[in-house]
Amino acid sequence: MSFIPSLPSAPSNTIFGIFILLVLNISTVYGQIGTDKQTIITRDLRAFDFDNKDTTLNGSWDFFWLEYRKGGISDTRGEVVQFPSFWTDKKSYNRSLPAAGYATYRVTILLPPHTKPLALRLPDINSSYQIYEGDSLICQDGRPGTTLETTQPHYSNKILPISGDTLRLALQIANFHHSRGGGMIDPIQIGSLERLQNAHTLNSAMDWFLTGLIFIMGLLFLGLYIFSHGDRPLLFFGLFCMLYSYRIVGTSTYPLHDVLPNMDWTWSIHLEYLSLFLSVSMFMLYTKSLFPKDAPQKLLTALASISLIFAAITILSSPLFFSKIIDIYLAILLASISLAFYIYWKATYNKRVGATIALLSSISISILGGFLILEYYGIVNLSKPIIFFSYLGFFSCQSLVLPFRFAYILNKAKEKAVLGLKAKNEFLSTMSHEIRTPLNSVIGMAHIMQGENPREDQKAHLEVLLFAANNLLGIVNNILELNRMEAGQLTIHNEPVNLHSIAKKVMIGIRAASNNPNVEFIQNTDSVANLLVLTDGQKFAQILANLLGNAAKFTKQGQIKCTIDILEITEQNIQLRIGISDTGIGIPLEKQAIIFDRFTQVDSTFTRNFEGAGLGLSITKQILQMQGVDLQLNSVFGQGSEFYWIQTFELSTPYIKNITTSVENTAPLSDMHILIVEDIKMNILVLQKFLTKWGATFDISTNGKEAVTQFDESRHHLVLMDLHMPVMDGYQATEILRKQGVKTPIIALTADVGSANEIAKAGMNDLVLKPYNPEKLLEVILNYLQPKFQERKIQA
Fold first, then answer.
1. Judgement on whether residues 614 and 525 belong to the same structural domain of the protein
2. Which of 16, 311, 498, 751 is the right S-S partner for 277, CB 3.0 to 4.6 Å?
3. Cα dist. 221→238, 361, 411, 416, 513 in Å?
4. C-beta neighbour count of 755 within 10 angstroms
């Protein structure tokens, strides 16, 4: 209970009693009553509404320097000082006191009768304390002593429940470890226990939430740095976030110490200062790398280096030393924040990517940083929501800068990639034309020479020549096919085809190209000899050519077999198992998973022994996947391999063309007159040889303009049109002819594999790619003959 003197009871003493009450009232107002031997500094809160709000214990307290006293009322009077404050503050203590020392603060608090529990909120006190209520110790943080050796510092925030209507508090404080004076800056709060606990829980939750958010943000940007091939702003901002996240829970209200109450104070104070110095250093490096054209590189490097020097001093010295230099560093920190603000403003003015968002974040952190420094010196007291949302705004804005910049870089990279892909496609298209055009002449003349009864030694030379030319053509075809797949230009055109006939032709070509008498080529496809199915015949031939060619390449003796078996057949569909097997080198089990990768062979050492670019299997697998089919593999290393797939085809019943007549005795194009439109003399010569052999007559135009003038629909049954020519190209010439009402078939002869769509738009009926096989060219020509010529068929 509070100490109140007894009043005289006799009526004659009424005036005296009134005088005593007046003196008591005055003592409550000024906080002091008694004689030289007694002192009571009292804070009268009996009229305060604790049900609805809290208050602080700011104001006058008794102060006893280099003394430890308890909370009784019989002690001698102390020095009246303003609380809270550090005892190095001359304004509050009217004299100079050293930072190292110990003291007691005392006050008496008068409380109203209350039913709800009350409590004190005790902030961190520099640097250890204990509290007595009367003669009873009720709270302790660290261990106050009288020397450096006997004092154990610690920082934490506590909620201390209280009871009774009078508190006689004695706050004993010791500081021998920190250069900043003993005592405290933050006020002691008094109020509802439930409200103070809820506020403490909410503040801790906000701190931990913000810490987790910033730390995860740091991990995210470090991950982006690792996968972005060294984008340095990502690295520095990630490190800045992770370092600064410690300051949210390791300083101010110290929620980390609630989780780790026994954490060593020396470690915590080192981490507190290190996190500041290192995070500011990372932020300077981040700003330097974020806007290099707007940031003074040397100055930012110097500021970052200074922060690193302060961090080194912190590691190598004691808290008593490095806490002395914090005032110097805070000036550097203000300069760094101001410089960052200027850089972001300049970057915004220069319209750098993400600069506006960075400027907004710098405004937020500049205001917050200034207030935090003022709070550090006890000038202002920021509420937790203000700090929370200021930090959240800063880190949110900064975290948006990098993704915005990252997205911008990706878009630029994408644009460059698109331009690069376009340039690559154009290059490959051009190279296709440039390579195929001379190959057309080489392969065409080789075929012509083979049909002119060459000597035996010449036959061997021609076979080598054709094999080399076809091998080169196969590599070019695969590379261009892969390019078309990547560009999404590969399409499947279903038509009635005979799989047996296609397999036979491909087998003959691969056997001739292989020219290996030690390998037997076997075809087991009779089961589908009389069937037509709907599929892309050209793609099917390409698949067989790739698989058979692959088998021939890796089989030096034994056999290569092409098998087509019927698994199931209905009126509309047929399910087939199509397989290519060999007795070649086989594929090791560990290599089978990668054999379908591009530019891959069974072993890298084989690239010297076996020709090819390693594209055939990859392209084959992708073509089948476009049709919903998987290419399978069975292989035993050293014994051979089988590639197979199971596919369902739709049956077709159109007329099957059987081109079986001998070329030596029949002229399938007799009485046919063809207009050749070609500008390269060697290609003209090849066409002349072929058409003459097949019995056709022809006229020649060397460009599109001549073709338009020379064409006579009454004489010309078909036009063989080159695409790329001087004066007027084949597209323009065809469009002009079609506008004139010409219905005559026009077949494009081109080395440009990417021209199919343009050919159709121009009005051409079909295309034959250079270099063309004579049999393929003849088959396409016969497809577009007038009815009277359609029954004339030949195998070239």
1. yes
2. 311
3. 5, 17, 19, 24, 57
4. 22
Residues whose CB is less than 8 angstroms from the CB of residue 647 and which lie 6 or more positions away in sequence, other chains included: 575, 576, 578, 624, 627, 629
The owner of tokens 């970052």 is 304
555-595 residue pLDDT tens: 989 999 999 999 998 888 999 999 999 998 888 887 776 66
Q: Is residue 795 part of a domain?
A: no
| 77 and 111 together in one domain | yes
* Segment 105-112 mean pLDDT: 94
Tell me which residue of 331, 214, 327, 314 sits closest to 273, measured CA to CA: 314
Q: What is the Cα Rg of the chain in Å?
A: 47
161 pLDDT tier (thresholds 50, 70, 90): very high
Phi, psi torsion values for 107, nearest 5 degrees: -160, 150
Q: How far apart are CA 183 and CA 122, in angstroms?
A: 12
- N-terminal to C-terminal alpha carbon distance within the chain: 124
Q: Is 415 left (phi over 0), alpha (psi -120 to 50) or beta?
A: alpha
What angle do helix axes 456-486 and 384-450 make, rounded to 10 degrees? 160
How far apart (Å, rounded) are the C-alpha atoms in residues 762 and 744? 14
264: phi then psi, degrees, rounded to nearest 5: -65, 130
CATH of the domain at 594: 3.30.565.10
176 with 309, same domain: the answer is no
- How wide is the angle at C-alpha 110 spanned by C-alphas 105 and 115, nearest 5°? 125
Paired with 161 in beta bridges are 119
Secondary structure of 157-214 in the HEC alphabet?
CEEEEECCCEEEEEEEEEECCCCCCCECCCCCEEEEHHHHHHHHHHHHHHHHHHHHHH
Distance CA 114, CA 224 (A): 57
Do 71 and 107 belong together in one domain? yes
Given a contact cutoff of 8 angstroms between Cβ atoms, the answer to whether 265 and 151 are in contact is no
* Residue 778, token pair as written in the block: 């003849």
Separation between Cα atoms, residue 743 and residue 749, nearest integer Å: 18
Query: For residue 326, what are the domain limits?
Result: 199-413
Q: What share of the chain is helix, strand, coil (3-state, %, to 5)?
A: 50, 20, 35
On whether residue 137 sits in a domain, the answer given is yes
pLDDT digits (tens, 9 = 90+) for 295-322: 999 999 999 999 999 999 999 999 999 9
* 258: in domain: yes
Whether residue 187 sits in one domain with residue 221: no
How many whole angstroms separate alpha carbon 344 and alpha carbon 290? 10
Distance CA 737, CA 747 (A): 13
